[in-house]
């Protein structure tokens, strides 16, 4: 079959040919499900004179479930990149729900939100549908609190009715979502709706590929100059399977954080990109949601002239550690000499402890931890 008819499989096999991936039969099989969605969406695209305000034609989506490190997010990357439509959105599940809750809160404070017939769910879904959204990609679909559990059925009832196709990744089968949760019987209609509107596919990949990237690697380098840079360049190519990467962005609270390089679920920053710019905890949490591995070049020694950078660095490491993100980094000074400012010395003790743990085989062998809802960081 021509590559333009199997764009996700073709993109996957191209990575295999380039040596960025080792071919996995389960991943190859999963590409067919993504390609089916693209074919269905293309066939359902309205054409002709009367297509300016078409009635959306629903296309059955996909719910890809598998253990950590099996390539679900990478497969989603390939699908999103190959999807030949503009009306698409990709976001972490908890970020999406954070935006929904913020929209509901704003609506309830407005004049319209105080009316007897006020419908906050209608208010937050209307802009999405009005924008023409056709495909919503949600990473790490996981329901652990009653607020989201009670909201999801009405939310997706409106989105599905508006013609939105859902493509989601998860570590949990639909029937296991919100397991043992309070009033779970009220959540069961959403599970039924989810299984009706998406094809549930289990990714039985053979290995934890994320773990293999870091197996036996020294992830920290110390000092400055071309030798240290060369060490980090080699490690970067190992993490990305030889892909050099390209610039990108992280959307955060209505603005965009530039990413100098990103590839295969990893991002590479300079210390100044993250800690010498006006970023905060919510920005770092979004970065931790978007990437499973982070490389930071040139982490500076932090004295009292860099107190703001030191505070941001503490917040950054906390966010990465809490999420279980893998860290590779180069430092100008040894860890125990990294901070020389008495004002941040106490807080830095915990940061140094976490940095030591984050280079351990035990930490590098673990999967990502469940994401913390962003409203917890407000």
Automatic annotation (TrEMBL):
Keyword Hydrolase attributed: no
GO annotations of cellular component type: cytoplasm
Top-level lineage group: Bacteria
Keywords carried by this UniProt record: ATP-binding, Nucleotide-binding
InterPro entries associated with the record: ATPase_AFG1-like, P-loop_NTPase
GO MF term (any one): ATP binding
Alphabetized PANTHER family for the sequence: AFG1-LIKE ATPASE, ATPASE N2B
Annotated protein name in UniProt: ATPase
């Amino acid at each position: 079959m021509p590559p333009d008819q199997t764009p996700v499989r073709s993109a996957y096999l191209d990575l295999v040919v380039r040596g960025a991936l080792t071919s996995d039969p389960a991943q190859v099989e999963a590409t067919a499900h993504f390609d089916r969605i693209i074919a269905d969406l293309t066939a359902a695209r309205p054409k002709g004179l009367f297509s300016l305000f078409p009635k959306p034609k629903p296309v059955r989506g996909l719910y890809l479930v598998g253990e950590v490190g099996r390539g679900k997010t990478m497969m989603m990357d390939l699908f999103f990149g190959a999807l030949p439509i503009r009306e698409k959105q990709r976001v972490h599940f908890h970020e999406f729900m954070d935006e929904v809750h913020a929209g509901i809160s704003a609506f309830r404070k407005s004049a319209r939100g105080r009316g007897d017939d006020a419908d906050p769910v209608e208010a937050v879904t209307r802009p999405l549908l009005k924008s023409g959204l056709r495909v919503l990609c949600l990473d790490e679909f996981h329901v652990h609190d009653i607020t989201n559990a009670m909201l999801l059925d009405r939310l997706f009832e409106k989105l599905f009715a508006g013609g939105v196709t859902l493509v989601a990744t998860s570590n949990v089968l639909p029937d296991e979502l919100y397991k043992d949760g309070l009033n779970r019987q009220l959540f069961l209609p959403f599970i039924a709706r989810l299984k009706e509107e998406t094809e549930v596919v289990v990714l039985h990949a053979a290995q934890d590929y994320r773990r293999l990237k870091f197996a036996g690697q020294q992830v920290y380098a110390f000092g400055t100059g071309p030798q240290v840079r060369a060490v980090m360049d080699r490690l970067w190519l190992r993490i990305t399977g030889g892909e050099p990467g390209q610039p990108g962005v992280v959307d955060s609270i209505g603005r965009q954080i530039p990413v100098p390089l990103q590839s295969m679920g990893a991002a590479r920053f300079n210390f100044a990109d993250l800690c010498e710019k006006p970023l905060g905890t919510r920005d770092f949490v979004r970065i931790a949601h978007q990437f499973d591995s982070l490389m930071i070049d040139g982490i500076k020694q932090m004295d009292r002239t860099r107190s703001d950078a030191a505070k941001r660095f503490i917040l950054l490491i906390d966010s990465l550690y809490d999420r279980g993100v893998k860290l590779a980094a180069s430092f100008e000074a040894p860890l125990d000499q990294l901070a020389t400012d008495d004002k941040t010395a106490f807080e830095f003790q915990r940061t140094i402890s976490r940095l030591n743990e984050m280079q351990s085989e035990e930490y590098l062998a673990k999967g990502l931890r469940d994401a913390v809802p962003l409203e917890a960081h407000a």
